[in-house]
Structure formats: C-alpha cells, structure tokens
Write a structure and sequence with these properties.
75% helix; mainly alpha; two-stranded parallel sheet
Length: 434
C-alpha cells in the first residue's frame, strides 16, 4: 500500500507529502469529480428526447412541455445560489453524492408522471437536486489545486461536463432508437450511470488535504493570509459568505458575462437539433443522419472547454478574462458563419464543431475565475452565485427564442441570436480584468 493510499484509508496520521505523492492525490480528486459529473447530464439533458412520447401519451403541447423544461432551469438557478454556499459549509463530497442520488430518484418519479402537474413538480425538483453537483465538485477541486493550476483543472472538469452532453445524447438515442423503449425509460436507464458516479465519488474523493489527513508540500502550502482566512471561515455564517461574494463587483461582471454565454450555449443545445431535423438544413444527399451531424456540437463544446482552461494558465498567465473574450468573439463569428455561409455536410460539421468549441469553451475560465475572485474558502458560494446568473439568463432566453421560432418558422435564426449573445458576453467580460 502506497503512502497516499494509507493516508486516505486512515491508517496513518497527518504528515507532509512529497511532490509526487501529492500530485497523485490531487489528480485522484480531479478525476473522481470528472467521473461523477460525466454522468450528471443523463439526469437533466434527456428531456428533449422524451418530448415526442410525452406529447403522444399525455396529450401535452410543446408550449406546455417547454414551460416544464424552463421550470428545471429556474429551479437549477435557485439551487445554485443555495447549494454552492452549502458546499462551503458541509463539504463538496457529501453534497455532490447527495445530488446524484436525489436526481436519480426524481428522474424515476418523473417517469411515472400522469399529467403536467406531476411532470412539472418532479422535473422542477430534479433541477434543484442537479444543482448540488457542479459547485460541489468545483469546491473539492479548488481545495486540492493551486491557484496557478485552476485553469487547467477546471478545464478538465468542464471537459467532463461537455462530454456529459454527448453521453446524454447517446444513451437517450439508444433507449429510443435502438431498444425502442417508451419515453418513461429515458428517465430510468441513463440515470443509473449517474448513481454509480455519485457513489464512486463519495468512496474515492476527500474534501480537502486536511480532510484526507495530509499536509501539502511547500509548493502547495497556503500563504499566511490564506491560513488566516481559513481560520476565520470556521466561524463564518452563510449570510456573511453571501454578503462577501455579492459585494464584489467582479462577481457581478462574471455572472452577467456567463449569463449571456450560457444563453448562447442552451440556445444551441436546444435548437440546433430542431434546425437539423427541419427544412432549414439540407444534407445534400450525403446519407448522413442530421442527428449525427448535430452531435458535432457537444463534442466541440467538450474539446473547447479543455483547450480554454489550458490556455488561460499557459498562454494568458491565469488572466481569465482574455480567453473568455477571445472565445466569445470567435464564437460569434462561427455562429454567423453557420447562418450566412452556404455550407455542405462536411463544412457544416466543421463549423458546427467550432461553434460549440468557442461558445462553450469559456466556461472553464469562468469556473476557475470564481475562486480567483472570491478566494478558496468561498469557492463554492461564488461558483453557485455565478452559476445562478448563468441559468437565470438561459431560462429567460428560451421562451423568447421559442416564441420567435413559432412566429417566423425559421429555426436558422438561432445562429444570429447566439452570435449576439456571444458579443454581449465579450463586452461584459471586458469589465472583469483580473
């Protein structure tokens, strides 16, 4: 048994670790958080695949189902505001695992819905359960990784979130098109992966080096200021944490900037499949299913998050605002290209990949920015507050986008809308300037 294994199993007391031992532990925490969150979207990004079956079975309109989908976004936003703070108070390990278990149960409850009231109740509650996940995992990561590495670590974490969209797409397609099961099973089968991820995270992860019984090497040691802040945090109330975070103007700038970015992201995730399945896209006789063309979007998002986090550390010296602005400008350009350029199948896949790459990529910089601005001791609260902004904007934008689609019948308008949101995000990000 290695020294780090003995420490995590509780067979040895607190002691300083060598660089290589601590490096293995910090990667263990990051990979366990990534493993868990890789499955989280099977609990909330599968709803669209169930809509046709719900329409037929329960007789609900698209407008009603759109409103129910919006309930999840709003309850997720409210949950972010609450649960990020609780992750600081109770620890991300327990919170993330609780979110996975509760979301699995609520997905199963959703599958037994008999009408709009029960569907809205269970799906809305699921949004709150889902909100326990991301800030809690981010809290654990910020405890183990040094500030100059946060772009890299949060880049990997956000990459897992991006790949979770791909997994949600694939598992839902298997349920519907391969296994030919009813819509209820979309809420029953994929989420079992999330349950496994949550339990595994609880077994493998530890909230902090102190909770693991280790002392980081000198290169990771806290400064005297950070040690004093951690000591003060022990007696800090939730209200004090909220006040400290919300009084910081850079948190507001980051929240509004990611709000526009997330509105662009969800605009793409929700409406690009509609665009490719409609009459606005022609495959040119390629024989490739439009749904498989659209999967280039979440793949591009996942890769973009990984790259953006790396360059924020290595190219921009932990200046998070610069890669955010760069990617948002290029995202606006790619979305505009999707709208105005005569694209064939191959070029459409490439440009759609790049659109996802640049639109979603800045999320890794945003999440690294939260502990940078608010400090490690309030990383969960700051992440929750900023993510609340993100989903408030996304929830507000979707009904407006849907109304525009209904009134014009032109689903390709999603691309200039996304371009405009990206431009607004870049402009607001100019005020962060860390």
């Amino acid at each position: 048994m290695s020294n780090s294994q003995k420490i995590l199993s509780g067979t040895t007391g607190p002691q300083p670790l060598a660089e290589n031992e601590y490096k293995r532990l910090k990667w263990r925490m990051l990979l366990s958080a990534m493993f868990c969150y890789f499955f989280f979207y099977t609990g909330r990004q599968t709803f669209g695949f169930a809509i046709p079956g719900i329409e037929e079975d329960l007789g609900l309109s698209k407008a009603t189902l759109g409103a129910i989908s919006g309930i999840l976004l709003w309850s997720y936003a409210a949950g972010q505001m609450i649960n990020g703070n609780l992750a600081d108070k109770w620890g991300g390990r327990r919170m993330m695992t609780a979110g996975a278990i509760l979301s699995t149960l609520l997905n199963w409850c959703t599958s037994f819905s008999t009408g709009p009231k029960t569907l809205g109740l269970f799906w809305g509650a699921n949004g709150f359960a889902q909100s326990l996940g991301f800030p809690s995992g981010g809290r654990v990561i910020s405890n183990w990784w040094a500030p100059h590495e946060r772009g890299r670590s949060f880049g990997f974490y956000t990459f897992a979130a991006g790949m979770a969209s791909v997994l949600a797409y694939i598992t839902s397609t298997i349920v519907v098109d391969t296994l030919h099961l009813d819509w209820q099973w979309i809420f029953r089968v994929p989420v079992l992966l999330m349950l496994v991820g949550g339990v595994t995270f609880y077994i493998v992860a530890r909230d902090s080096p102190a909770k693991a019984g280790v002392t980081p090497p000198a290169s990771y040691a806290l400064t005297p200021e950070e040690q004093a802040a951690d000591a003060a945090a022990a007696d800090e109330t939730s209200l004090q944490r909220y006040k400290a975070v919300l009084r910081n103007p850079k948190i507001w700038s980051a929240g509004i900037a990611i709000g526009f970015q997330n509105a662009a992201r969800y605009g793409l995730l929700i409406w690009v499949p509609v665009y490719f399945l409609g009459n606005d896209w022609e495959t040119g006789g390629s024989g490739i299913s439009p749904l498989w063309i659209s999967v280039a979007l979440p793949v591009g998002m996942a890769v973009g998050a990984l790259v953006n986090g790396q360059i924020s550390d290595r190219l921009f010296g932990a200046r998070r605002d610069r890669p955010i602005i760069l990617f948002m400008v290029l995202g606006a350009l790619m979305a505009t290209t999707m709208y105005v350029a005569p694209l064939g199948t191959t070029s459409g896949i490439v440009v759609l990949f790049l659109t996802g790459f640049f639109v979603y990529g800045p999320q890794s910089s945003f999440w690294a920015l939260c502990p940078d601005i608010a400090g490690r001791r309030m990383a969960g609260t700051a992440t929750g507050v900023v993510n609340c902004f993100a989903y408030l904007f996304a929830g507000a934008a979707e009904p407006m986008v849907g109304g525009l689609m209904d009134s014009t019948g032109n689903t390709s308008l999603i691309f200039p809308i996304v371009a405009g949101a990206c431009a607004c995000s870049a402009l607001v990000a100019l005020t962060i300037r860390r």
